[in-house]
Amino acid sequence: MLPNPTLDQLQVFLTVAETGSFSAASRALNRAQSVVSYTIANLEAQLEVPLFERSGARQPKLTEAGKAMLEDARRILGDLQVMRARVKSLREGLEAEVSVAISVMVPSRALVDVLHEFREMFPSVSLSLNVGELGMVMDLVLSGKATIGIGGAVVKQDDSIVTERIGHSFMLPVAAHNHPLAGIGRPLTLGDVREEVQLVVTDASGRTKGRDFNVLSYKTWRVSDIATKHQLIRAGLGWGGLPASVIHDDLTSGTLVHLDLDAYEQGEYPIYSVRQLANPPGPAATWMIDAFRTRLSACPSQVDFHAQIAELQEAGTPLAAE
To answer: Which residues belong to any copy of the HTH lysR-type domain (predicted)?
Structure first.
């Protein structure tokens, strides 16, 4: 007779594998450890293969058969989540509220334009908007505090999260026009910036703990958010990277100067829409994702951005930020 494992057995198996022990799985599932062990034993009996190596180890270790089964279990339970989510979406219809987490890397003009249209399209839908730095967008989605997230910094893949690239952004190293680095008049080296204060945003989510991105100076001042970092750099208290959309006007007016620093990685990086697999967006949230995709896909490349800034500086004509 062919094995016919239940969804409950697969869920217990997946939980034991992910938590690393039968006792941890029993706490996660709120079941007695004996029930968890009995469920796994029944599953192994049905499949006629051992899933865990139990002898000689404090914690159960997956066998080769268990590793193969783990991928199947994840896929089956993932498909079940998709089916449940689809039914929920069909049953509930238009959302009463859309909760959105937005990264500071999303251009403010794109955000304002989307929200203007959103208000016209869905006047009965309430909006909750959270602005997050670095890993906070992912945290807000994972915790359920945000229905969708728009941002980058997908530091770690998660099977419960669906991500889709919808645009790009980039950071530029800058300093105030009267900062020592701005007056060097040649491409900068690491030696030029090592002893200058660099302003760095701390990731409150903890998702990037222990990892620094483009931190090149020995002296760092760490701040909680991009807005504070922006103001301190404008005041000449240090140098650092800022989103291009945030500093568009500052570069045009000459308040800030782009630093020609090869050691600072300035490549474009993607912006994603992020949502929980088990909580698909309704009509209003789906419209919002598409609207952001339309605007963000039209954002200029770095080359075009620099060309635009140079043209505006020559003309002496300030322009609103992208």
So the answer is: 5-63
Q: Please, which residues have CB within 8 angstroms of residue 317's CB and are 6 or more apart in sequence?
A: 252
**CA–CA separation, 196 vs 180, rounded Å?**
9
Cα 281 from Cα 52, distance rounded (Å): 38
**Least confident span in 59-63, 100-104, 285-289:** 59-63
pLDDT in tens, 38-95: 988 888 888 888 888 877 666 788 888 888 888 888 888 888 877 776 666 566 678 8
- Can you say how many angstroms the Cα of residue 47 is from the centroid of all Cα atoms in its chain? 39
Separation CA 76–CA 60 (nearest Å): 23
127 SS3 class: strand
| Rounded Cα gap, residues 73 and 14, in angstroms | 7
Pairwise CA distance, residues 152 & 208, whole Å: 13
